[in-house]
Predict the 3D structure of the following.
Amino acid sequence: MAGAQNELSVAERRKRREEERRRAAGAGQVAPAGSEVSVAELANNPRNARGELEGLEGLAQTYSESGVLQSLAVIPADVFKAAFPENMHEIGDARYVVIGGNRRLAAARLAGLEQLPILVNHKATTRKAILIAAATENVARQELKPFEELATIEELKAELGTYDAVAQALGKSAGWVSQRRRLHNLQPEVRNALEERAEGMTIELARDLGKIKDPEQQLTAWKKEKALAAARAAEPGSNDAAAGKPKAAKKLPKQGGNSTNSELDATTKERRDACAAAVAAFDGDASRLHIIALQLPTEPDDVVALASHWLGEAGIGASALSLPSLTGDEGHERQTRAALALSLAHCEIHLANSGPDEPAHARAYLDWLATHADYQAPDAAPSLTA
């Protein structure tokens, strides 16, 4: 039987899962994990800490072309309503509540999709367990902004009693929680600078400023850092400096799998053409690239979308990234190329977010491209050997 199952095509397996789902629905049962359900049966988590769902248009475009490859983590709606009766009216007649993948659900609705893959969490049945499951999903996928992360910590603390218990529930250290709690101490001006990503402000600096309890000393320290950032931006050699303007931090265009090459600047287009060529033809060892990519914080949905774009161009197919298929059904060659595409996309999205001046990771990534993908970065810095 196992052999016969493996011989089924992806389309046939999907059709069979859909038939099983319909039979389960007809019997009033919960759909099995890994099945697909109607978008109309899914409700966003009203307690989701993520306030703004950004980049939905680009993600929706990708989903309309390739579908949703990553399953949404859900719990039965009646379980959620029992745990959070105060949010019952926001769930309505939905069958499931999404605790991991609210951005994917919103983008899928925008794309007009009718079915989505889900994984049902049957263990999260209490208020505490649901909060922990949703928080773990968001923290593990690095989906929360700094103050959303802080709000999540505080909500869990109210439920669990201590910050040590919060750290344990999230699988983090007490220091990790303590660092984020420092944001409580930020003065409004500093808080706004972090939220607006002002020149010179970073999350690391914000946490250090949060150590300064005296309001005036904290503001003085921030103004000093801001002045230093402006001075660095105005160093000789900057075009903006020559024009008498402070240099804005350069951001490379983002690509969530939907942007065309015409929308990219020449440097980014050349680099991403090299990535696409590598996905299609590279047959060497990509271990160094994987090591670089695994250390980068990125938006997972954007990474998957960009990797899907390259896999589609290479004729490999975005289905190589589909989690339900990674059980031996896909060939080793397709999985190798999917891993390569994901690592390249991690590096590209990170470079788009941080700009080319991010030293260590950017240089190591560009060095890999120069060595393995017939790419030469303009004004390349000395290569890093990793």
In short: The first strand starts at residue 36 and ends at 38. The beta strands are 36-38, 42-44, 72-76, 96-100, 115-120. DSSP finds 19 helices and five strands in the chain. The CA atoms of residues 240 and 247 lie 5 Å apart.
